[in-house]
Design goal:
heterodimer, A: alpha/beta, 3 domains, 10-stranded mixed sheet, 9-stranded mixed sheet, 12 helices, 35% strand, B: alpha/beta, Rossmann fold, 4-stranded antiparallel sheet, 8 helices, 35% helix, globular, binds adenosine-5'-diphosphate, binds magnesium ion
Amino acid sequence: MSQAAISFGEDLVRALSRSLGEPGWLTSSRLDALKYFTDLPPETNPLYTKYASTFGFPVDQFRMTAAKSAVDFRSFFSGFLTGKESDIILQGNETQVHSELREELASKGVELMSFHDALDKEEAKVRDLVERRNVKSSGDRFAAFVNAFFNGGVFVRVPRGVALDKPLRRMLLLDSPRTPVVEQNFVIAEEESRLVFLEELYSKGESVPSLVASNLELVAKPGSHVDFSSIQLLDGQSTHISNRAVDIHSDARATVSSLSLGAAVSRSRMNFLLNGRGSLAEGFEIFFTDAKQRYDFETNLIHNSPDSTGSTQARGVLKGESQSIFKGMIKIVRAAKNSRSYLAHHAMLLERTAKSDAVPSLEIDTNEVRATHSASVAQIDDEQLFYLMARGLPLDESKKMVVLGFFEPVLSRVPIEQTREGARFMIEGKWHGEKRRLVDRETLLAETGEITPEVKESEDIFERHYKYR
Amino acid sequence: MKLEIVDLHASVEGKEILKGVNLTIGQGETHALMGPNGSGKSTLAYTLMGHPKYQVTSGKVLIDGESITGLAPDKRVRKGLFLAFQYPVSVQGVSMFSFLRAAYNNSRPAGSEPPTIFEFREVVADKLKMLSMDESFLNRYLNEGFSGGEKKRAEILQMALMEPKFAVLDETDSGLDIDALRIVAEGINKVSGPQTGALLITHYQRILKYVKPQFVHVMYQGRIIESGGEDLSRLLEEKGYTWIKGYQEEQAPVQAP
Ligand SMILES: Nc1ncnc2c1ncn2[C@@H]1O[C@H](COP(=O)(O)OP(=O)(O)O)[C@@H](O)[C@H]1O
Ligand SMILES: [Mg+2]
């Protein structure tokens, strides 16, 4: 086993696969992915190439080692856990450290483990899943990167008919990692199951330049209901890359809520694949950037089946010299009759130096559908600020109120209460220059004294957009 | 205690709108400011409150002898000034409840303990009742989707909570039907007690049936061209604003073409 950090090539693939004790088919699969990583340009879609240089992702500058560092999870995670957690999988840097699952869930067959533990336990099943991955190496250089070089990942599965009463969680914590964290994640909800999953990515203070790259395969089997949320608060030295595919079967429902606050650069790709009749997908993309942060989002709603419903709503606020781009596509194939789809991106700029772009597009091959998008980018409104100041709020507080309010129309629709309340708490923290974490309601109450009652607009986004046609 | 406006000149985007306004409002007094559209009434209101777009080029605004012209709007609130907007702004995502609470807390004397969420609910419930407003108001976004009447009532609700020393009410009567007008006017009367000085900007006389001013001023082309008692407003109503224009020309010697 090579201890030395080496560059991204065949030697590294072989060393990684060997040190992880993988079977030959997986080594070959990595080598296939490597070809795409080597050959593909960073951006393959001609619609988006003009933005590629601003958002160049310097994975090649990193070096990787196949060796694993040992981490004592108790001391490593001290301060990040309340002790009340159950059903959680913890990871420090690239090393899998700890998984806790209540016995009652384990006995029902719920699985919450590392990818490689799952591979040891049920190789045939995992092989099948790997071979049918929807995050394809051929589609994206960075997806290929992960498929070739992953050194970890989680495997989550809820069996048929099992409904979880509490979220399953995973937390990744970085502390000056010696090697990139590259993950192959699977989250699978079997037929008629119910799963809420919370993912959190944090750093311990500012550390060395680091890379977190992950692919996620999220599968919602027929009739299942998955609410997935992901919170990214990595430190300002980090590069974050994520590729997600959400495969939604008939009458299944999947929501993905993302809150992005951290990292120097972040690139996330999300494909909602509405593969079954009556499937439903909802994406919520919430971000708040400052300084020189660069965020690059791509979300696609791909309707492959009739009667499917998809929506993605992105909202972001940009401070300082930060920049974002949002690329979104609605694709409805011929067979996906009677589908409806909605894509929205709204950004607020707090300074003239901040910048945000949106590139929405539609590709629709049938008439019997309703599809639309809406996008806006605007400076914070001076008249709103004056109004609030005329009610006694100082300038900074007025801005904060307008900014926090701006997120609400999307944030208030996030289906997971803990994510909703936690996101408000964390966004406000970022406003004040504090790093806050997702906390439970009790801790939130203890820290803020109260939870402001929510306003729920019972507005149907599809109604709103079609009323006037 | 008084609000003094002394030879106030103000511009918007380099264009002078207020051309020397003089007006003094004492504690407990109600002044009506009338005048045709575009004469500069709202400009005066915004300038008093410190809107950044409106530049004071000369003159002074004093509260209790202290100049406020250099102060940010929130600091003017602390001095006891309030403006009910002609066109209240809506803010998405900000609940009426949290907005009112922030306004309430920020207009209390410095150092006073803010009420808890429950105490504040009681405070606001009283004021809502006074203005015949439903509590469900609190769960809506700030002015978002409000009818004209709801917006105006909400402005008076804010005034009731903030208890200003001097209130400028910019066309709070416009766009209201007769019932709403009565409720709003009664609200103004209840909120502005003997401690409050009020400047009621209005285009029409009808609100003056309910809110009785001691003084009436007429503004035209950025100046107050006439001041008087309540009878002036009646005169204005009878003769219309064209009378003002004629009046103005009478006062100024006609230039030879
Ligand atoms: N923000 C502004 N930008 C440009 N012009 C303005 C602005 N506000 C007011 N004005 C101009 O100032 C004049 C007075 O307007 P305003 O004060 O609104 O009058 P009133 O309230 O008496 O109807 C008008 O000619 C108007 O066009
Ligand atoms: Mg006006």
